[in-house]
Amino acid sequence: MPRYRSLDEIFDEPDEFGLLEIKERARGSASTPDARNAEIVAQVIAFFETHGRVPDDNSLDLEEMKLGTIWRQVRTSPSAAMMESDRNRLLGHGHPVANEPKAVVLAPPPEPDWRDDPGADDIPESLDDIFDEDDDPLHEAVVAIRNVTPAAEREQPAHRADMYPCKDFETFSDGFEDMQAKLDAGDRLVQPVQNNVEIAVHEGDYFIHRGLLIYVAEKTELSRRSGKPDHRLRIVFSNGMENDPLASSFRKALAADKTARIIERPGFGRLDPDWEADAMTVTGTVYVARSLSKDPEIAEVRNILHKVGVTSQDVRRRVADARNDPTFLLAPVEIVATYELHNLERMKVEDLLHRFFDAARPQGLAITDRFGKTVHPREWFYVLPEHVSRAVELIKTRELHHYKFCPSDQSIQPKARGKQS
């Protein structure tokens, strides 16, 4: 390969590929500003004749916004070429154009734009000038409130999990003293509440919350809240108060309390006899509820379809949230009968009643909650209040196992000899 000592030697070599040939680009006639502005006027005229208005520089349409922005800039100082092409008088001039049509559409004067500097007359000189303008009527869209229910018409919740005095606190006081003694002696271990770990809540559990011992006295039947399984709880505090939150709300309250603790139960699980060592025997009230649902399938059998439940808390409070509870068929209920229990465990009585009336449990009873989930309530039976009353009396006299319920003729009959259990 030859070595060159200067650029002249390079340029003296033949340029076989034409790399050094300089071709001058042909220059076209550059468009003048007047010609460009006249083209903008023509585009605006086409837009005006199509839509009946000039393009909006605040439009959500990108092309209209661009054209409107350019039009707002060029219209302030129209040239002769622009006025000549403005056959619709969009520039507001009054000179006639040859061969113009007789029907002339005059465009309205342009509205002031927020980007433009205000005129001297538009700038207030004092606060009085500003306040004097308040007499101008405002558009309804500015003052009207839409999609908001007035406070007077808002439906108040039928149930609030507030703290209130525990009327039967004497039932729990000895249990709290016994648990405090076990904690002081180190017989019970406590664990902090861990974040992102769901707390299992069972009847008979003890917790420490806000410096108080609390006891889970009741856990109602399974229902669905916000599309997830949930229970209503009865929580008794060592200071003589109680409340009845949902299990999900109770877990959130514990998680929010950095001092909350879980008191471990003895034994290795539910099958261990020591598991129930700390649980208290809580009696309650048997209640019979009639649904006030407007659902035709439920309304037509409301006089025979009843909910049989047992609760340790006040019955009226237990059913206060019925319209939001799928186990109550998502409707208010009417309490038609109650029966007090004495020296009988609530859960055992409830289990006996449900097994006794099992043959009268409706098949296919289901309710769809507001999240589209199907719930099958298990505490509804085709029975009359007097049948429940009779069954409760047989439980008190320990004779229920000698009888059976016949749904065909709605009667309680003695079992045949030799088939008693």
Radius of gyration: 43 Å
Summarize the biggest pleated sheet.
7 strands, antiparallel
Oligomer: single chain
Order of helices and strands: HHHHHHEHEEEEEEEHEEHEHEHEEEHEE
Mean pLDDT: 81
Shape summary: elongated
The count of helical stretches stands at: 12
Helical residue percent band: 25-40%
How many separate structural domains?
A: 3
* Strand tally: 17
Strand order of the largest sheet: 1-8-7-4-3-9-2
Range of strand content:
15-25%
Distance between the termini: 116 Å
Helical/strand content category: alpha+beta
Commentary on this structure:
- This protein is an alpha+beta fold.
- The protein folds into 3 domains: 33-143, no CATH class; 163-281, no CATH class; 283-421, no CATH class.
- Helix content is 26%, strand content 17%.
- The chain is built from 12 helices and 17 strands.
- It has helices at 7-12, 33-51, 62-74, 80-85, 127-132, 140-143, 170-185, 247-256, 296-299, 315-318, 346-356, 385-396; strands at residues 164-165, 190-192, 206-209, 212-219, 223-225, 228-230, 233-237, 241-243, 261-263, 285-291, 305-311, 333-340, 367-368, 374-375, 380-382, 403-406, 411-414.
- Strands 1-8-7-4-3-9-2 form a 7-stranded antiparallel beta sheet, with helices on both faces. It has a 4-stranded antiparallel beta sheet with strand order 12-10-11-15. The protein has a two-stranded antiparallel sheet with strand order 5-6.
- α2 packs across α3 (62-74) and α11 (346-356) packs across α12 (385-396).
- It is elongated, with a radius of gyration of 43 Å.
- The model is unreliable at 94-104 (pLDDT under 50).
